[in-house]
Amino acid sequence: MSPRNALVAVLAVLLLQAAPSPGRSAGENPATEALLAVVSGSLAVDEDDFQRRLLAWSYFQALGEREDVMIIDVRTGFIPAGDPPGLKNARPIPLEIFKLNFLARKVHQDKTLLILDQSGQELRGLQFHLKKNGYDDFFFLKGGADAVQ
Q1: What's the start-to-end Cα distance of the chain, in Å?
Q2: Cα torsion at 10, 33, 45, 132 (round to 10°)?
Q3: Class of residue 127 by CB neighbours under 10 A (exposed 0-12, middle 13-18, buried 19+)
Q4: Beta-bridge partners for 92
Q5: pLDDT tens column, 73-124
Q6: CATH for 47-147?
Q7: Is the dihedral of CA 62, 65, 67, 68 positive or negative?
Q8: Where along the chain do its domains lie?
């Protein structure tokens, strides 16, 4: 059993144990709500902070020209055909590899990270992992690569 599956199994057991008591709905049980959020993958991030980190394509592209910036393409399931349109030196690092190797090793915390995924759907969870590993200088491409192709 993979570590992720083991975690989901443990959380499922805890969720069952946190089931509402008679006369109390699931919505009134904070433990149940928290576990449901984790199991569903919607890790809690500060929404205002998340929105401040979303950059429109023009800003993302302009910031990517700086030397103290690293552009990371976390799309998975595709074969990179060079950099995304209009970007130079984007590093293709699939999301799971990025989380396991890059973030866990805490590399390049001295750089501004510009991160894009395919559609912007992976970014909230990724923000959680970035913050958890001590990264603070990072931004995301609003709408992902779909927004510019």
Answers
A1: 38
A2: -30
A3: buried
A4: 73
A5: 998 866 555 556 677 788 989 999 999 889 989 889 999 999 999 899 989 9
A6: 3.40.250.10
A7: positive
A8: 3-39, 47-147
